[in-house]
Queue: 2 jobs
Job 1
Amino acid sequence: MNVKARSRSDILFDIFNYGLLTIVLLIVLYPLYFVVIASFSNPTLVNSGQVTLIPKGINFEGYVRIFNDKMILTGYGNSLLYTALGTLISVAITIPGAYALSRRELAGRNLVMYMIVFTMFFNGGLIPTFILVKNLGLYNSFWSLILPVAVIPWNLIIARTFFQTSIPDELREAAQIDGCNEFRFFFRIALPLSSALIAIMVLFYAVGYWNTYFSALIYLKDETLYPLQLVLRNILIANTISPDMMENVEQASKQLEIASLIQYGVIIVAAFPLLILYPFLQRYFVKGVLVGSIKG
Amino acid sequence: MVVKRTMKQLLRNYQLYIFLFPMVAYFVIFRYFPMYGVQIAFKDFYPLKGIWDSSWVGFEHFQRFFRSSEILMVIKNTLLLNLFSLIFGFPVPIILALMINQVLRMKFKKLVQTVIYAPHFISTVVIVGMVSLFLSPRSGVVNSIIKSLGLDPVFFMARPEFFKAIYIISEIWQHAGWGTIIYLAALASISPELHESAVVDGASKWQRVWYIDIPGIMATAVILLILESGRMLSLGFEKVYLMQNNLNRSASEVISTYVYKVGIQQADFSYATAIGLFEAVICLIVLMSVNMLAKKATNTSLW
């Protein structure tokens, strides 16, 4: 009797749990799905709330206008370049640095680690950083989007923890006896064992660079240098769509409709590179959270 | 003797120091040098004179900030936004992780995880863009529903009373899923034997969640709580700034957006630095107090 009652409570628990998670799933999924269908549906129907589950009045006018816009294309190219270059630099600094800090032989590593972690909680602030960037001559150069944020302390801690837990000391000792020096060990043995870590670092840094808009807002003056996010900000938030994109649209009401079509479309276009990367990288996610203690 | 040994060690590991060098250089230049620049909070900064040669004015900029008519609004908004974010946002990933951990159908579990992690990777600009599209009084989905109920459309983004709710709900929508990862990892490290023996003893699922899972992730939760409270005040600037407009400013002006306006837009460098420093110090105090409280209450702490 007792056992039966208990299993009934477990069944109830499961129903409740699966039901609630399904609702959560829909809450997360639906807005994304809606943006997708709204980007190629008839904007009159979208704006009057008639498009809910299936796209209606399918047309690709929004996308045609987006892909003919120079600002968006330049921004896209810029963002691809900044992201590729920035990710390369960040990963190239973070991974060897984290490896060195993971090694117990390194004198002063706890001090270095504390100095780094301290910057997570205290920094010079916006203005002193801005002055520094200006004094270094990086103002209005794309380097201002990369160098000031080249190493993210959190990523460094993740990388260090990875090396501490997945490269056994014995392995290095054995290699050392065979006459393998530090460089050789790192490049020939440690790195090849760290593909999961490299994947996660590439993902985290790339997403950061791809999504950044604020450094561009304060450091860049030339519109030709703008990354995609800054262009998007004008389209999505300031609601200023360049007249070029409105070519052949005379009526004001029609313009508003095309505007929202373009807005839904650019969201998809902006998310596209990540949508491609996501399925490949997501199996590494769990590695990305194993954070060990700072001291050690 | 000690010095000699250290020297020897340094020499033997010089290759490791080469690995470390670029990173240390980065932190010195881009993280520590701005801290040297903080002194302009106590000076009248003239770009031509530079940081060092500008003249000292003591606490003048701080006094000006404390006297300004906007300080109360700015501090109140900053504190409330962060406090509400923490209260409503912090428990969501924990609850979600506990729920996902109880899912035994692997395919469903994988599906849920794949979907709820995804929004984390969407940019702030796009999130705020989506929110404004959905809430638009003319064409947004939300207002379509309101209109179909026969009510007047609401211009949500322009109403100060909705600002914090919109901010926090969209924040949870975007990041709560991603936040579960760390708790799921903690849950996975709980010994299965605990659960097995609990089942033998006849514990229900609910009881196992309550008596095994929750205590098992407590330490993780406390550490995350400390970390969150430490970066509380400075986080979220980008999103607040994007969501801000003249109409909702009374609810959306926070210290960091204020610093941006005073410092970058009005080029009042010293004054803005002083306000920024004030914020940073408060941040540090909050972090240390929470850490101390956590140490006393749960024996878990950052240091």
Note: Chain B touches chain A through 96 residues (CB under 8 Å).
Job 2
Amino acid sequence: MGTTINFDELRRRLTEGSGTRYWRGFEEVADTPEFRAFVEDEFPNRTPDWNSPSSRRRFLTLMGASLAFAGASACTKQPKEVIVPYVRQPEEYVPGKAMFYASAFCRAGIAKGVLVESHLGRPTKVEGNPDHPESLGATDIDMQASVLTLYDPDRSQTVTHDGGISVWGSMITALASAREEAGLKKGAGFRILSGTVTSPTLAAQIQEFLTAFPEARWHQWEPCGALAEYRGSVAAFGAPLNTLYHFDRASRIVSLDADFLYWTTPGSLRYMRDYSTSRRKAAESGTAEAPRLYVAESTPSITGGMAEHRFRMRAGEVEAFAAALARELKMDAPGGAHPVSSVAAIAKDLDSHRGAGMVIAGAFQPPRVHAIAHAMNQVLGNAGKTVTYTDRVEANPADQLASLTELVQDMRSGAVSALLILGGNPVYDAPADLGFLGAMQKVKTRFHAGLYSNETAAWCQWHVPEAHYLESWSDARAWDGTVSIIQPLIEPIYGGKTFHDVMNVLLNHGDRSSHDTVSGYWRARRGTPDFDDYWRISLHDGVIAGTAFPEKTPPAAKIPAPSPAPARGLEVVFRPDPTIGDGAFSNNSWLQELPKQQNTMTWDNAVWMSPKTAQSLQANTGDTVQLTLDGRSVKGPVWVQAGQADDSITIHFGYGRTRAGRVANRIGFNAYALRTGSAPWHSPGVAVSRVSGGYSFATRQIAQTMEERDPFRVATFGEYHKDPGFARPEEKRVEEQTTLFPILEYRGYKWGMSIDLTACTGCEACMVACQAENNIAIVGKEEVAKGRHMNWIRVDRYFSGPLDDPEIYYQPVPCMHCEYAHCELVCPVAATVHSAEGLNEMVYNRCVGTRYCSNNCPYKVRRFNFYLYSDWNTRSLYGVRNPDVTVRSRGVMEKCSYCIQRISRAKIEAEKQDRQVRDGEILTACQQACPAQAIVFGDLNDPKSELTRRAGQKRKYALLEELNTRPRTTYLARLRNPNPDLEKG
Amino acid sequence: MYDLPDFVYFDHSIHVYKGIGCSTCHGRVDLMPLTYKVNTLYMQWCVECHRNPAKYVRPREEVFNMTYKAPGNQMELGRRLMAEYKVQSLTDCVTCHR
């Protein structure tokens, strides 16, 4: 983004309405040369590949690698493969047929139920478990990407001692002698540090150890855990409680900086399902009222994108806003200034929907905001209806910051002689003011178990690779308490050990396997002779029936005294990264290349600031600035973000890693370096100084521009009821049979897809699901910057409205499978052709790489392998590939196939039973993953199919319908339910 | 055992169900001391049958019969079996390539 942008000029253009109604980035409004380049050439910057010495070198390296792989011959020959039949065929295995096993993925200790697809003992894909109360069959980006971590060649592969290779047996000896030493003093000096533990078995093991060694201690630290929620509950109720939200029952929702649709929020999959379903149902029924969402936040989030009314404010002002809302509801909650003028209208709206409203406090807001939210929900009669309470799901709920602080103090005073770190990376992610590393170095013996030999492992004498969850036996609780058994899909690839194994060593049960530990725990709990059946059923279902926590009624919530009003001036806001999260899975290239929802940035974090803040700091996108807070400083590049609150600077965790692996090392900057325990989520008083300019980001926001005037169509419910056909205005409509071509009739199946933009939240789970299902390669930052990313389904993000405070919309765009496909007409070798069922087929083995098809595609959904992007050299990555989809080579075009492998599988099964494919039998990968159920695939010739029903709605429209491509993928316009009393505040 | 190129996807079960015999593609495996490839496996060879399955379809109960020989009225039998087994002539690229 080399061109300097004049924000005042852009504001003028947008307010005068001379610019486009929907815009993707400042470059588009400004119509910069960079933007024009992407409009005029789908893949600009092509020539430098040949001229720049660095690109030529890279090209030759890549060429060299692929040539070496292909052998000495000039043309690519299929490598020799050995086919080994089973000597003894395992029961139920049919080569070529996938098996699915239920298990659970854990993020920050909280389980999300999954079904894992396995091809001959090789897990390749994670799907949601329909029987799991959170997942209900859906997945998030983290769950989808977890299968790549399993095969990550940078995972820790061996036990290490003092940096050298060692063996598990030696570590057992070391652990045992540390235990014996501590045992002389009843365990004094022995400390365990874990993340959040919900596993009943692991907790029982640790408790057993603590019972035997009563002076030993167990500490917990999760860098982006539920600290504020825990403290808020203690402040309000005097006891830690778990809050569950029931979006299916809520028609008025106020989010106090709560990004409840975001994947790091426990329960987010269920929340998205419930919330989007009620929006969708309202749009479909025409009578039911859609939920109305008010969001107060500093940093644009996907939840903010869904809001009817989004209030930009500094993160430190949310508390004052919450208090003002409470006062409006006649509650006693003093508070300071905040920028929202329409509090009375929001309060009135909540008040008139008693029992059907909801106030939800953000995980990154201080405890008092949580307490105010709890109190408001009680006053409004929402508690017990839309908001319920249970015991906390952690096995040992604790104030984790206090827990970690205590550990650090004890380490510093020399009271700790042995430290066992079960997972996590405190050297990287502990609050900067604690001085964790310095204190830890005073501990005599330090053990670390983890997936990666990370920053913390580097400072521990002993490190053992942790088994990935797809290699482990364990158990864990979901956000509502439901227990899932985690079962392995594969033997540990790198000889990893589970935490149960490590604890078994400490418990002197070194010979007890993880499986026996977990099943033994549940056998003892069950205590009946039918345990084997119970165990098998629980394993099969992926959940243990009846383990969700019962509802609790808390006492009346108390609102603590207000914290001092935040100082004026700039504040810095810390957040987990939109795609990388807290940094535990930084080395996952699928997540690195996934565009951040708000600005489509890949492979980087940045210093986000609003246009106004940037103007006052005289900074622009790409300038490197130094942020200084309490004497600590980091340097990072600026990104000017529309929708960001003024005077509020957001930086994200998860970057600046030094020992993450090849993918994530030395990219971005470490935001943890500024974060202190006293201000874990935002802090005023940050100083910003410009260091230099010229940093370039790899974003996708202006690539693949369709130049459509209204790609996204939105109306309020009122407007929709008045004019149901608003999404297909006259000038865009094309009559059914307007064509010079012969009219083709599709008599068999007629596949199509409908995407409901009222339900879609822009979470991008579809993108990662597609990547996993279809063996989509990653290309790296340089190539993304040239518009060469490979995702078959992209999520376009549009801004609409004023420059500083726009509305944000998301639109997933897969291949449209046009009936009159422009791409097919120009292919000289018939490598893209039409099937009898109306699919636009891409035939890799015919493609010669002219890219004419892509030039001619008005939707810009075709992707070209400029280089050999698929990694053919890393053996471990062979495992993750879906054997039902070709791994593409250099010089080949590719694009969304509507998951043809799944269509084929379903059709073959149906044929073998002499029947038609049933509606819902084929789920495309994006559809299956979608937590919002926005995507539906099916047969347009089946009058009873869900697709026919959905696509029959009046708000249906097609992208670029006026071009008469007759796309099979159609959209349902977004409907909003704004408050008529409310002027935008 | 045949090794198809990696961009070709083949499902045995549906061929067996629709009345394509083992020996049609694999030859007389029962008479092979060492197995060998009896057909080219060129796409032309696949498509020849996909375009006109009647030439090769046999009764389901004969699928595993190594000694089965097409009767004189194969075309007539094939057309009847095609109707009975709902055999389709699938020549879309994505039938095999994806």
Note: Chain B has a mean pLDDT of 93.
